[in-house]
Amino acid sequence: MQADTRDGTRGRESVLGYRVGTELTAVASFGNSDTPGRLVQLSLEHLTLHLDSDAMPRPGQAASVVLGQGERWATSLDAEVMEVRGGRPEVSLRFVSPPLDAGRRIVTVLEALRDNGLLLPPETRPVWKERIDRKDRVARICEALVGRQARGVARTAQGVKVNVTAVYFDPMGARMGWRFDGPVPSGPFVVEAFGYSSVVHLEARDAHEEGGRVMVSLPSEVVRYRHRWLRRAPPSSPCTLSFNHPMWPQVHVRRPVLDLSYEGLAFMTEPGEDLLYPGLRQPVLEVAMDGMPPVRLRAEVRNISSTAAGRRCGMSVRPLDAEGARAWRALVEAQMHPSTRVEGDWGDATWKLFQGSGYFGLPGKSAEDFVEERPWFDATQERLEGRTRLGYRVVRPAGESLEATLSVVKPYEGTWMAHQLARQHVPGQRSSAREALRDIYLRGYEPTQVDPDVKWFIAFCEANVRWVRFTKFDFASWYEHTGQACLTPFRLMEAEVDREWDVPEDVEVGPPTDAERERFFQEIERTRPVAYREALDLVPERFDLSRARMKWGEAGLGRERELRVARVQGRAVAMAVLESAQPGVNLFNVLDGVRMVSLGDDSQPEAQRALLALLAHAADWYRARGRRVFVHYVEGECVEYVERAALADLGEGKLWVISSALLPEFLEHLCEATTPRPAA
Fold first, then answer.
1. Taking Cα atoms as reference points, which of 55, 150, 42 lies closest to residue 105?
2. CA-CA to 233 of 20 to 30 Å: which in 173, 376, 377, 484?
3. pLDDT class of 2 with cuts at 50, 70, 90
4. Which residue stretches of 625-662 are H helix?
5. pLDDT at res. 18
6. d(C-alpha 421, C-alpha 467), whole Å
7. What is the DSSP letter of 677?
8. Integer Cα distance of 665 and 36 in angstroms
């Protein structure tokens, strides 16, 4: 019998088994009285009855239940009352040690009810629903559906449904075509098309057949539904699960895995053999694939659905311990991302990729400028090895070379940063640039979704790279109005610490008072978007990066942040955020950066002198930490102080920020953007 406490069973009633949409009866005996009732909910471990009498059984009272009295499949089971609700009560009962043959008879009943449409599976609600009406975005979505020959279902208001495939896209005529696997509806219909990790609903009101296709105008809007945060994908190599049934250990289940994610998996089940139902908890389940040791997990059945191929069982899974969590993550990533790697010594290959791709070629830079950074780069990567909760490097091997790489690191308490993206063409490789970039991005971003603290994603992007504009900038612009995304332009300037600095004599620089610190946060709140402030921890409670510093310190990596104020005649005029990270984390030192905040009109001469003095102070600050250079994000309009400081201009950029709630949408957009265009 499954080891559930009474309280645990009560808490699980809403997901245990199936609600029954029929007048199926059962008779419960409480002591000497038999009470008939209507079956409300049924599983192999419990049932709920709506009694026809005013009998009031007590929780904990023994009972006997006969299902299907008078029917050939009638089954008598011992039970215990768990809960009683209402005047003419609804009673929940737990079966006590039901025999295996009784379990099989219950399954027979459930399957018969399912075939007749009388089972009501547990209600599921989408975790995301979005109405998309931007004309250009709707067109992109429709084009991507056709590009990947997306399958779906056309449904009419009368309940008729036909399987369809997206097969034609006409951008000039603003229409698309579907191939129907059955009769074409005579009136309007809605297509439910399967995207990367969502379902897209498109209305069709003017359908007509043309050249073997059903042509429709592009809709003015689409509605996207998402039923889980984490994408599930079919395994890339054979993968099996196995377990002994928790109620009847003699029943051993072994099935091929259909799809999987960090938090779930699915497989085809034979109900009469496997005896599964929604809400069933599996204490230990084992997943195995060639080349890796089996992984043991806890699991719970979330749904059993009907498909053309049979019954499909979906389970949520959870590792048993920290070691199991690492093993499960490795197995999932090996299956979902077979073309990319995280583990291994890729230092030399990555450096050659940087050289070959032109990564080092920002204005005024060349590969020779980074030679001294190489030892730091290798040492930092070595310290991050195996610390995927803090950072990792993704590579896409191509023979003995690398085709692409992307690094991901967690510089703030709830924020992940993607950086050091590079790609090159490798002779003899048949994959496209879009495919390589999609694989690298998916492997880089998807693992961060299992971080319980994740709230934001950031990237310091070059402003004029077409790929970045098309993917990141467009996406952020669609959601800026919600406060869940922002694009902040800046100019990236680099300063050498050992040069001579012009220090205005009338400006004093030092740590701020409590009042000045409070004023800094007020000014940041007034001038910067909420996504910017929250993602960069520019808020009072997280400004000192205490949790981030602790995590970095555990890996032997440095992380610091301090605030400085510039005063003229004792009055605070401007402030600077000075930030540093372990050398080698980023080759362009984007985390060794200075941000300036003017406390008044920054066009005034005294404000420009204060900003210049803060830069000179920053040079001393970074020199004391062994840095040769630091960067300054110029976000203001008045930049006379930058010209006086003679900083090296590395070009225009944008700070890209999105909420973690938007990441599934961003990855969906990424896959749409990298889908090959449909053939004409």
1. 42
2. 484
3. very low
4. 640-645
5. 85
6. 11
7. P
8. 51
Q: Which two tokens stand for residue 468?
A: 């970045």
The answer to whether the CB of 130 falls within 8 A of the CB of 665 is yes
Mean pLDDT of 65-89: 77
Cα 9 → chain centroid? 31
Q: To 5 degrees, how large is the angle CA 216–CA 217–CA 219?
A: 115
pLDDT, one tens digit per residue, over 627-664 is 999 999 999 889 999 999 999 999 999 999 999 999 99
d(CA 499, CA 515): 34
Phi first, then psi, for residue 665 (nearest 5°) are -70, -40
Q: Which of 67, 141, 155 is closest to 104 using CA atoms?
A: 67
CA distance 67 to 75: 5
Residue 292: enclosing H or E segment and its boundaries? strand 292-307
Compute the chain's Rg from CA coordinates: 31
Tokens in use for 326?
Answer: 């690492």
d(CA 384, CA 419): 15
SS3 143: helix
Residue 680, pLDDT above cutoff 70: no
Long-range contacts of 245-251 (CB under 8 A, 24+ apart): 245/274, 245/275, 246/2, 246/3, 246/280, 246/281, 246/282, 246/283, 247/1, 247/2, 247/44, 247/45, 247/98, 247/103, 247/275, 248/100, 248/103, 248/275, 250/100, 251/100, 251/275
Partner residues linked to 303 by β-bridges: 314
The secondary structure of residue 449, as a DSSP letter, is: G
Cα–Cα distance, 271 to 114 (Å, whole number): 11
Q: Which of 267, 243, 271, 266 is closest to 103 using CA atoms?
A: 271
Residue in 25, 89, 27 with CA at minimum distance from that of residue 58: 89
The residue with tokens 């889980």 is 228
Whole-number mean pLDDT of the chain? 91
Say how many C-beta atoms besides its own lie within 10 A of residue 392's C-beta. Answer: 21
Residue 379 vs residues 165, 278, 384, 549, 556: alpha-carbon distances, Å? 51, 49, 9, 18, 11
Rounded Cα distance between 551 and 388, Å, is 12
CA distance 228 to 10: 25
Q: In sequence order, which residues have a C-beta less than 8 Å from that of residue 76 and are 6 or more positions away?
A: 64, 65, 66, 67
Distance of alpha carbon 596 from its chain centroid, rounded?
33
> Comparing C-alpha atoms, which of 27, 18, 186 is closest to residue 116?
18
Query: Measured in whole angstroms, how far is the alpha carbon of residue 554 from the centre of its chain?
Result: 26
